[in-house]
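Record passed on here:
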Amino acid sequence: MDIRNKASRIRLFSFNTPQMRAFHMSWFAFHVCFFGWFGIAPLMAVVRDDLGLTKTQIGNTIIASVAITVIVRLAIGVLCDRIGPRKAYTWLLCLGSLPVMCIGFADSFESFFLARLAIGAIGASFVITQYHTSVMFGPNVVGTANATTAGWGNLGGGTTQMLMPLVMAGLLMLGVEQTLGWRLAMVVPGIVLFLTGIAYYFFTQDAPDGNFSELRERGELPKAEKEYSMRATFGAAARDIRVWALFLVYGACFGVELTINNVAAIYFFDHFDLDLATAGLIAGLFGLMNLFARTLGGVFSDLFARQSGLKGRVRWLFIALLCEGVALVGFAQMETLAVAIGIMLVFSLFVQMAEGATFGIVPFVNRKALGAVAGIVGAGGNAGAVAAGFLFRSEELTYQEGLMYLGMGVIVISLFALLVRFSAATEAEEGRAYEAAVAERKQQSDQQPVSV
């Protein structure tokens, strides 16, 4: 996909250009999605007692919350190629808000399970976020742009852990019974999701020069039915071994993050005998590292690219993922609360930097099938979460044992990052594009305010 006039810099405090509107709206939309996607997680101790759920059943709902996202992410990337990220995001947010608001009607394990399964579709929002910034920003800053929007979106995993118990506490203070409180609390993120979907439609556009439909009318993009059929784009991506290597890699970082978002609060609640609000606050610290950690992953990816091109981006991904696995194994061994929190933050830092590093590579794998590549790799995150979920549904394994085995798996999968290689011609072409973007940024430096 040949998109012109991509931004060569990130003017962080600007909302005036289509690139920066897409930047800010995409991270905010993804952030809000976490309130719908994982809003129930910090309330699970109450839900468990209300619905009489067993550990196995809780594990099954955790798997359900991320399983459907695998399928939806595969489809949403191709949908972005066809109709553009603007319409794709609007439909996903508006439709996704419905099961979020309706989960309160669950009165059994089966109905609760189905509600979490339906809500999981919202997780496909990540692919649209990464797609939108990939078509809006040039090669010298695309790693940083992708990592920052995804990171600030993932930050929703932390704020959700902190705010949802407070929302429920506020309802209880108004005299609402606990069994009704968690149900009413979930209506709040549902409403916000719907309103955000409407705002996304009116405040963004697909590309720097207009929406895909307009660009195709002007002949600046190929017609959707010719180049962007599902068979053509998905097939091109699926035949590339590098895409599946990144699929596994992303499962070992974002999949791990999703798993921790689901189990952290109940782990601290049970293992360290904390109250619900305190456990949620500590669990929220893990997600709050997204404020800067994933951005750092993208920044380092761009810096490694400056020195060593695409090979540098791959090398940095391997380092970040390996350190993540080692830190997770360490976290699983901690018995003292203060030390466990410290190691969790180190682990969180490398998890999120690995995520940023992954999508610092994705835009360069296949430009003509960008949506399909982003969809497959993004689906890997949820596939990883599904696989990890089985470690935490077994009555025979403790949460500590599950975390340790998960860390070992991450260490092994880090080696798959080294399978991502680029031809000499691609390295040279992307090197020239990088230098051109840097030169453009220097030319504009005297006319634009200081920015990231």
The CA atoms of residues 291 and 412 lie 28 Å apart. The longest helix spans residues 293-332. Residues 18-214+226-444 form a domain with the Growth Hormone; Chain: A; fold (CATH 1.20.1250.20). DSSP finds 19 helices and no strands in the chain.
